[in-house]
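Molecular record:
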Amino acid sequence: MEDEMQRFGFIVEGRKDEVKLRSIIGGIFPIVVLGGNGFSKHMQEVVESVKNIVDVLFIATDPDDFGNMAAEKIKAQFNLPQIELNKDKCMLYNHRGVPIKCGLEHADDMYLLGLLEKNLGEYGFKI
């Protein structure tokens, strides 16, 4: 009998984060979209169910105050690893070079790919 393939998944804040991750990593894997930085009872149940079908569920919230708050809420309930995103590498700038938004969806593809390869690699996953 063949070994079952290891599986991973992610928890993100928004749909744009999900789209970004799916554009960087090929394959099929679950992504829990919080729909903001809250962590309602319903979302806790969703995380619990996804956690039971993957080997590792990674927290990949934005590296800003709201994302950090969401990650802390999740970590208070579940023992999950977090992908530590660099805030400077996740900034969106206006035409004058002034930062206007911070989020996973704004990260450079190569930066994000390298970070994901490193973090997932620590758990034996290859992307």
